[in-house]
TrEMBL record:
Recycles cytidine and 2-deoxycytidine for uridine and 2-deoxyuridine synthesis, respectively. Catalyzes the hydrolytic deamination of cytidine and 2-deoxycytidine to form, respectively, uridine and 2-deoxyuridine. Gene3D superfamilies: Cytidine Deaminase, domain 2. Zn(2+) binds at residues 60, 93, 96. This is Cytidine deaminase. The lineage of its organism: Bacteria, Bacillati, Actinomycetota, Actinomycetes, Kitasatosporales. It holds the Pfam family dCMP_cyt_deam_1. It is an enzyme of class 3 (hydrolase).
């Protein structure tokens, strides 16, 4: 299962995520993270974690990614990977799954340490924009 994306596409996404990870600002946790995603118009967006001396204000890599998505024209996320400091795929934290749900929905495909999974599998019964419309 490649989520409709060839292995070369996933490798390119991992490379983008690793490049973002190398620019992380994580002096407090020592745990740099990079994230990259494909957009439905072919763009790639990425982000890195940015921590703060006021620890609770730290921004996850996915925060930067969705900010770049919106700032560069919006669109829907289709494929996503985040990596740790070794460049290996990492699971997005719970809050970030919710951030991704807003812009990718249940069909977003994520590369994880357990293989390719949809966001519906990573965040079952998600709360989302549809609930507000009811
Ligand atoms: O999905 C995640 C999980 C963690 N982190 C960051 C937050 C913090 O800076 C560091 C350690 O938790 O990793 C992310 O950027 N994304």
């Amino acid at each position: 299962m490649t989520g409709g994306l060839a292995e070369a596409g996933w490798e390119a996404l991992r490379t983008e995520a690793r490049a973002a990870m190398a620019r992380a600002y994580a002096p407090y946790s020592g745990f740099p993270v990079g994230a990259a995603a494909l957009v439905d118009d072919g763009r790639t967006v990425s982000g890195c974690n940015v921590e703060n001396a006021s620890f609770g204000l730290g921004l996850c890599a996915e925060c930067g990614l969705v900010s770049q998505l919106q700032a560069t024209g919006g669109g829907r996320l289709t494929h996503f990977v985040c990596v740790d400091g070794r460049g290996e795929p990492l699971v997005p934290c719970g809050r970030c799954r919710q951030l991704l749900y807003e812009f990718g929905g249940p069909e977003l495909v994520l590369e994880t340490p357990a293989g390719l999974l949809t966001l519906a599998e990573m965040l079952p019964q998600a709360f989302g924009p549809d609930h507000l419309a009811k």
